[in-house]
TrEMBL record:
Gene3D superfamilies: P-loop containing nucleotide triphosphate hydrolases. Residues 17-252, 255-509 form the ABC transporter domain. It comes from the Bacteria. Keywords: ATP-binding, Cell inner membrane, Cell membrane, Membrane, Nucleotide-binding, Repeat, Sugar transport, Transport. PANTHER family: CARBOHYDRATE TRANSPORT ATP-BINDING PROTEIN MG119-RELATED (PTHR43790), GALACTOFURANOSE TRANSPORTER ATP-BINDING PROTEIN YTFR (PTHR43790:SF9). It comes from Paraburkholderia largidicola. GO terms for molecular function: ATP binding; ATP hydrolysis activity. InterPro entries: AAA+_ATPase, ABC_carbohydrate_import_ATPase, ABC_transporter-like_ATP-bd, ABC_transporter-like_CS, P-loop_NTPase. This is ABC transporter ATP-binding protein. Pfam families: ABC_tran.
């Protein structure tokens, strides 16, 4: 990368936070090698890189949870406080994690002032705490009731409460870790507006996301890590998407996935593999569509559109209220995962940590979970057979692991998702249901996971991709857009991004 790609190198003395030559090792593994980064006042600075690039380790050092082996961290030009001085760190930096640290059973006020409540005669002064909470929320224009139970808030509101809590300590540098992962379109827009308002009030953000489009929407600068090293820091306007992906992967050409628009269309007489008939559930109604053998159909829409629930109903993970599902013309029992597996439906569920994996078990055990009966008598398979199958899937999907016996908890997010995909493919399904298959994974893992779609499609299998990610949907022969629980539009392969996004948001760009 050229010299001009170094982001404001002369602004060192004015940086809100600097990492200077930071290195960190865990045993023989180098998690960070001589990494430097500067974040300037009032900006949103993106930190991007593939899983395993070193982002999490750098964040843990910037927040004082870990001490670097080499280099140093500075805030406003001054050396970071000692690791043991937690109050001093809280005054300088806070991280709002993807998985909320809010205690759901407590009120908003209690969460804002946890472990620092004002007392009177040894008893918590509830009136003062509620008054101070209201003043804090009003000051930062956060429209949440101070006496509301935190567990009753939306994900969006909980994030804003966490930001307010951080600001109340005096911190003006906030790290946002995948802040939009659980938000829909309108919530993301509101969050971004709030971030921009806070920036104008002197708050600085480090924004971590796998959604590269968001980097261009909200950030002014970006830093790329790859293989534990700093690759580039630059103004976002100076780094086009293709160059950003090249910096993340070390390879030219951007995301390398098959666009369905380049495929030959299926013959008109191709048999229907899956028929969904007037399916109705809690957040969707009267959903009807068919998927042919060898066809890839996308289901998209806002988080609240019902797309995930419909996909889960097809896989047996959720029982619909009424309607029917047919596989090769025969009715499928509803809300029954074993029946769905038996009838040839495989699934990559939305939440790999709670539905897709047993983190304490090995790669081989997780990958072979759905086929234990086929590997051994009475459903008990020998470790040798499980490991042999595990090795086969490691090679087929390019899972980066020490071997089939490694616990999946030790894998990166992208490689964990590949193990979930391996389990879905283990039964050799005729219909593969993928729910947000590339959420929270890096660019190269995205390519590997989406290449599976092309592979199984060529074998004559059908695929449903339920996702809000445009890259996921490009592999689809057609995309069904859901809006408020119903199918609102259908787009053949080759759609324009703006048209599809507008349809997801419930508007038309081509009204006469």
């Amino acid at each position: 990368m050229s010299e001009q790609m170094t982001h404001d190198a002369n602004a060192s003395t004015h940086a809100v936070v600097e990492a200077l030559g930071v290195g960190k090792r865990f045993g023989s593994h180098a998690a960070l090698r001589d990494v430097s980064m500067r974040v300037l006042p009032g900006e949103s600075h993106a930190l991007v890189g593939r899983n395993g690039a070193g982002k999490s380790t750098l964040v843990s050092i910037l927040t004082g949870l870990r001490k670097s082996d080499t280099g140093e961290v500075r805030f406003g030009g001054e050396l970071a406080p000692p690791i043991a001085d937690r109050d001093a760190w809280r005054e300088r930096v806070a991280c709002v994690y993807q998985h909320s640290t809010i205690i759901r059973e407590l009120s908003v006020a209690e969460n804002l002032f946890i472990n620092r409540q004002q007392t009177r005669n040894g008893v918590i002064d509830w009136r003062t705490m509620r008054r101070d909470a209201r003043a804090l929320l009003d000051h930062w224009k956060i429209d949440v009731r101070e006496d509301a139970r935190a567990g009753d808030l939306t994900v969006e509101a909980r994030q804003l409460v966490e930001i307010a809590r951080a600001l109340s300590y005096g911190a003006r540098f906030i790290i946002l870790d995948e802040p939009t992962a659980q938000l829909d379109g309108d919530e993301i827009k509101r969050l971004f507006r709030r971030i921009e308002e806070l920036q104008r009030e002197g708050v600085t953000f480090l924004f971590i996301s796998h959604h590269l489009q968001e980097v261009y929407e909200i950030c002014q600068a970006v830093t790329v890590l790859r293989d534990a090293r700093h690759i580039v820091s630059a103004p976002v306007s100076a780094l086009p998407r293709e160059q950003l992906i090249e910096a993340m992967t070390g390879e030219r050409g951007g995301l390398n996935v098959t666009d369905a628009a380049s495929r030959e269309p299926l013959p008109a007489a191709t048999a229907v593999a899956l028929q969904v008939e007037a399916l109705t559930g809690a957040d969707y109604e009267d959903v009807t569509f068919a998927v042919k053998r060898g066809e890839v159909v996308g289901l998209t829409g806002a988080t609240s559109s019902g797309r995930t629930s419909v996909a889960e109903a097809i896989a047996g993970l959720r029982k619909p209220q009424r309607g029917g599902i047919r596989v090769d013309g025969a009715a499928l029992p509803l809300g029954d995962v074993p029946a769905a597996l038996k009838r040839g439906i495989g699934c990559v569920p939305k939440d790999r940590h709670h539905e897709g994996l047993v983190l304490t078990q090995s790669v081989a055990e997780n990958a072979s979970m759905t086929i234990a009966r086929m590997l051994g008598k009475f459903g008990i398979a020998s470790p040798a057979k499980k490991n042999a199958f595990g090795k086969k899937m490691i090679e087929a999907l390019g899972i980066a692991t020490q071997g089939p016996e490694q616990a999946v908890s030790g894998l990166s997010g992208g490689n964990q998702q590949k193990v979930v995909m391996a389990r879905a493919l283990a039964t050799d399904p005729d219909v593969l249901v993928l729910i947000d298959p590339t959420a929270g994974v890096d660019v190269k893992s995205k390519e590997a996971l989406l290449s599976v779609v092309d592979r199984v499609r060529e074998e004559g299998k059908s695929v449903i991709v339920a996702s809000g990610e445009l890259d996921d949907l490009r592999v689809c022969d057609r995309v069904l857009v859901m809006f408020r629980g119903r199918i609102a539009a259908e787009f053949p392969a080759g759609w324009e991004d703006n048209d599809l996004i507008a349809s997801v948001e419930g508007v038309s760009l081509h009204e006469e």
